[in-house]
Design goal:
This protein is α/β, with parallel strands linked by helices. The chain is about 55% helix and about 15% strand. The chain has eleven helices and ten strands.
Length: about 375
């Protein structure tokens, strides 16, 4: 069995199915076959193949429907999927790729074309899996200590202060109870913030896999970006007592994404600028239109980052933790960048240690 690879063939034409099976078995792959889409889904669920070859035009359930079901199943959601088709119009290709197909093989095809496509997709998937495992190991290593520290401190405060109030409330003044409850509230808000960011991060990672859900969101438009930025910036400035430090220079516009996700980008970038710049230094938030893009720029006069820190940005990686006694997870810039990429935008970071940072986000304008 060639490197232990399992390949599933879903094809309603007996001759074609048997020919492909013989070719792949001759190359020492472990091969499974199905004569229609429904059977193919059952076989895929049971065998969890490393690659699926599927005909497009089949009765009852065509290849597109098979692919939808494959991508909805967690066990096969990232399995390489190659269409076998006599249809090769641009519209057909786009439809398949939008649903998450990895490649097309046009009928009739040669043995070399089949084997080259199979080999290329398996190799690419193996490289992807290897990088994913390395990233997961890094992520697990990075997140362990920060998550433990960030969660345990507010939890200790909540449990400690609430226990004190429960046991001593008869001997406490109302003002003392109110003071302790204020500390409990602050700790709860810190904990809520950690949970919100962590859940959002994993939600974005899931969206990158479930492309049909993401496609629906990508068709939506935001509200007026000027108003959205004004509202969220005022809220964040007030929370940290820096209402005089932020300068807004905004134009009107709408971008190709839901308002909630645009607000998440703004929130994370402004929070980052506020956290890593001293009070009474200026933060400028500027928007403009460049052809079919909204350009959002956030400039601060903070501590900045080194080129190595910018290059190694990632989830649960936090730099300069001693500045302002940071208690975060290092998710802010990662979340903003991830949302931007998912909605066909781009983000650049220009930072100099000791003088500040300029972050620019380019987002497609609403259609």
């Amino acid at each position: 069995m060639k490197n232990g690879y399992k390949i599933l063939i879903i094809e309603d034409n007996n001759d074609v199915r048997e020919n492909i099976e013989e070719i792949l078995q001759a190359e020492d792959y472990e091969v499974f076959v199905a004569e229609n889409g429904s059977i193919g889904l059952d076989v895929a669920a049971k065998t969890q193949p490393d690659l699926i070859l599927c005909d497009v035009m089949m009765p009852e359930m065509d290849g597109y429907e098979v692919l939808k079901n494959i991508r909805h199943n967690v066990a096969t959601s990232i399995t390489p999927f190659i269409f076998l088709t006599a249809k090769n119009t641009r519209e057909d290709l786009r439809k398949g790729m939008k649903l998450g197909a990895d490649d097309y093989i046009s009928k009739p095809f040669t043995i070399d074309e089949l084997l080259d496509s199979v080999s290329a997709r398996l190799k690419k998937h193996e490289e992807f899996t290897k990088k994913s495992e390395e990233k997961l190991n890094e992520l697990t290593h990075n997140m362990g200590v920060p998550i433990t520290n960030v969660i345990s401190e507010p939890m200790k405060a909540i449990i400690g202060f609430s226990k004190m109030i429960m046991m001593e409330h008869n001997n406490m003044e109302k003002s003392e109870i109110a003071e302790f409850m204020g500390l409990v509230y602050q700790a709860g808000m810190r904990l809520s913030k950690v949970v919100r960011k962590t859940m959002l991060y994993y939600k974005l990672e899931a969206m990158a896999i479930h492309t049909d859900e993401l496609s629906e969101l990508q068709d939506q438009n935001s509200g007026n970006t000027k108003m959205l930025i004004e509202d969220i910036s005022k809220e964040l400035m007030f929370d940290v007592g820096r209402t005089e430090d932020v300068l807004l220079l905004l134009c009107e516009g709408r971008v190709q994404m839901p308002s909630d996700y645009f607000i998440d980008i703004i929130r994370e970038l402004i929070e980052n600028a506020l956290l890593y710049s001293p009070k009474r230094t200026k933060i400028k938030i500027v928007t403009g239109i460049d052809k079919d893009k909204l350009v959002l720029s956030i400039l601060d006069e903070g501590i900045g980052m080194t080129p190595d820190q910018v290059a190694s940005l990632g989830a649960f990686r936090q730099f300069n933790k001693d500045f302002n006694n940071q208690e975060g997870l290092g998710l802010g810039l990662t979340i903003a960048q991830r949302i931007t990429n998912l909605f066909h935008g781009s983000m650049t970071i220009n930072s100099n240690q000791g003088t500040g940072s300029t972050i620019k986000v380019f987002l497609p304008l609403a259609k």
